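REVIEWER CHECKLIST
Item 1: Sequence provided? yes
Item 2: Single chain? yes
Item 3: Sequence as submitted:
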Amino acid sequence: MSLLRSGVRFTSYPTHGISSVRTFTSSASRCKQRLVILGSGWGGYEVLRGIDKKRWNVTIISPTNTFNFTPLLASCAVGTLEFRCAVEPVRRYSPQVTAYQAWYFKQKVLTCMPATAPLSSEKSSVQLVEGSTAKTLFPGTGTPFTVRYDKLVIAVGAYSQTFNVPGVKEHAHFLKDVRDARAIRTRILDCFEQANQPILSDIQRRNLLNFCIVGGGPTGVEFAAELHDLLHTEVERYYPSLARLAKITLYDVAPNILGNFDRSLATYAEEKFRRDGISIKTRHHVERVEEDKMFVKEQGEVPFGLLVWSTGLAPNPLIQSIDYIAKHERSQSLLTDDNLNVITEDGQIDPDVWAIGDAAIIKTAVLPATAQVANQKAKYMVKKLNKIVKDQEHTKPFEFHNQGSLAYLGDWKAIYDRSTAETGIKAKESGRLAWLLWRSAYFTMTLSVRNKILVPTYWFLNWIFGRDLTRF
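Item 4: Structure as written out by the authors:
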């Protein structure tokens, strides 16, 4: 198996615009079919784990060298868990990994650009495509190359949605991967250290310790809950005078938070947050963000020390650059049939290309863009591809089985909703029992033996000794 990955985001370049293109060759047996997987998230990584690597010549091209276990990122951002608890290395599946970036595919060829800094011997650069929406660490540098494929699985995920609000990308924090969690954790500790300086007034301290979260979905709610736990334990112990000045505010344009949950569970979450002192401001619209402050239509200027933005998903630039596949009118995700094959603009099914995860939507059954859906689609693809490589038929369409939704609310309480499941037991739960389900589920879902040991170990250490507030 050959394994490729990259360190930055996808973008696209037309092949005819590149004058010097190298062809990537693999030492794997030529009799094997080439399977290329784009992305190492809940979809791509699960395909990589389960695919028959003895029969397929596998290549994975990803914006990172890790799989991010996203449900644990909020815990990592406040020090409940360490960062390595929420990642799995892509390199585990091959010692021969090179870092590259994919830019374009057409006629079974991927045109790629190295995502690393160019060598000193590389004097030429590739011109950026005018109007390209993607950003890279090293734009237009290095020498491009091509990767051919026989079968392609597109699982590149999505980006954080900003709704084109000015200043969000420059001044807000997202929570999509471990790097985001690390930046948030550093910023939280910076806010308290800065507020602790004797030269500041109480007003300046309150502004620094105003933690704003935009987005009332599970990610925003869980981060608010984890941050509340931090403020009322370690921060209260080590910064007693500052803890009283700290404030958490949750903003959303919708009339209620947790819109995808049962109404009674969402109400339970709102009431608990209000008792905990977390301010919930629904039907509020952020107009622009500047350094250390944002402007809310219904409120005016709001100073903050930390702004976490979690308002849904935007299409990946690679998906935006693909022009021969039909896309969903609203989300711009790739359209697939119920076998997850992409549908071309002329309505034809491409038998060699599949799309899964947040990058795709089944035309006849629109499912939520969640890790659960992406993971189940990936497992379906593993079965299909492992039969295809043996020349066996696999025509059974994909079926989604709702396992329920979980959200942590702080103080060892959570909510669990499976009230809309079409099969199995319909249930909903809140409080301590739901918290036990939440921890049990995520402990079970951790992929490696290493993290199955690390995660409960850090939970236990945190319970005994508390979170580490060291900055480094």
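Item 5: Key structural point noted by reviewer: The radius of gyration is 23 Å.
Item 6: Recommendation: ____
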